[in-house]
Amino acid sequence: MTPWYQDSQSDQSQILSSRVRLARNIKKYRFGQKLTPEDASLMVQEAQDAVSRAGARMFHQMDITALGETEQKVFIEKHIVSPEFLKGTLPQSLLISDDQNISVMLNEEDHIRIQSVQPGDMLAQALEKANQIDDLIEESVEFAFHPEFGYLTACPTNTGTGLRASFMIHLPCLERSDGLKKLLPTINRVGITLRGLYGEGTAPMGSIYQISNQTTLGKSEEEIIQGLQNVTNTVIEKEKSAMDKLMSAHRDDTENTIYRAYGTLAYSRKMTAKEAMDMLSLVRLGYMADLLDKPKPIKQIYQIMMEIQPGHLMRLAGREMNEAERDSARAKYLREIFS
Description:
By secondary structure, the protein is α+β, with helices and mostly antiparallel strands. Helix content is about 45%, strand content about 15%.
């Protein structure tokens, strides 16, 4: 199997990917910062053994703290680990599948965080894969669980199912028309939140957002998934409506902007990450709206977006680079793809 971002389904609709994350804690250990270094080490080993028994052929173990800063950036840019995981001071571990679509962070905010990512609109499949790992792990360890409240977690907002589900979606037309500002209050009222590319506290890049559930208590997994799916479908309908209005009122100007973006990607000698993301977003819109009469690049647009981020560029170069050097390397990478 290939990583989700290399799958063609990530480039066929507004939805780039579907992600499910399950938070679990082992009953006999304390949570979060109350966990001593000694118990943290025991907990990580026990959880690691349980994951290994659950999917010995599926996962390989990594000590991500032993990696260099560049490789750590790459893992964040791929959404495999959270920035908070890298800031941890207690013993931890990462288990990851060969295709990198399933990962297990041990001792992030919770003892165990299972993540499953699928390309495009495949949230049910992402949940199924995460639950398979969850069920197998639970055969070896006892999770902290309350008959009334459900799975107990370090942060109360995750208590219940422990499920965070999200779509990564591309919303260039709603962003350009300020339509998102009108949608946000309605979305928030039904327990759904819209965040930037890298989750809570981050800004959107390239008109890409994460839409996810805010609470897990008092709802079943199926209700959470269906609620998120319904809201996302509404957001996508609004995006398509905004696209239709844009094409109707400003088709020539929009087409001109998209072709200029393509030219910028094909010929620039220096480009910041923000500018590159904006240009790639316009090119993706051009393909979605059938305005861009250019061959699609071999790589999916989101894969290109990911590979122009600092960590990926420095890994490709095999060395650390300052911002100016990255701007030059980014433009060169994009010229090779689009010219």
